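Lecture notes, unit on protein representations.

Consider one protein chain, 141 amino acids long.
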Amino acid sequence: MRRLVLVLAIIIPALAAQTKGQATISVDDASLPQVVPQQPASQQFNFPTAEIKDPGTRPNAMFKFATDIMAAYTEADRIKYLDNLFRLQIVAGRYADAVKTITSLSALQISKASPQTGANNVQYEIVARARGQTDRGRIVI
């Protein structure tokens, strides 16, 4: 459970909030994901609360949840899109894709972002690279 909370707190901050039953996650024009009231103009995703609580079903539930959102997610602002996409890719275990997305994001932000944003991107890239190595059995973290 501690690892899940850490992942949610780092990758998808809005999902780390306490929810009761099924939280509704909305993909809309603002930022992804947000826990919001039902809005007819946005696509709705049910957060798999029961599956997340069970360590046996948690990895598959998070993979499916992130994959479903990635398939539907659109955003006109390229920087926002890439910033949200790499987080979803990490949750879905697509670490090599996440590294590529972070690289693209960093290139777009080079003159616009604060040093802190750049440092955060580097941290996420390190996590994605390390998790990718772990999945290939090369290291254990």
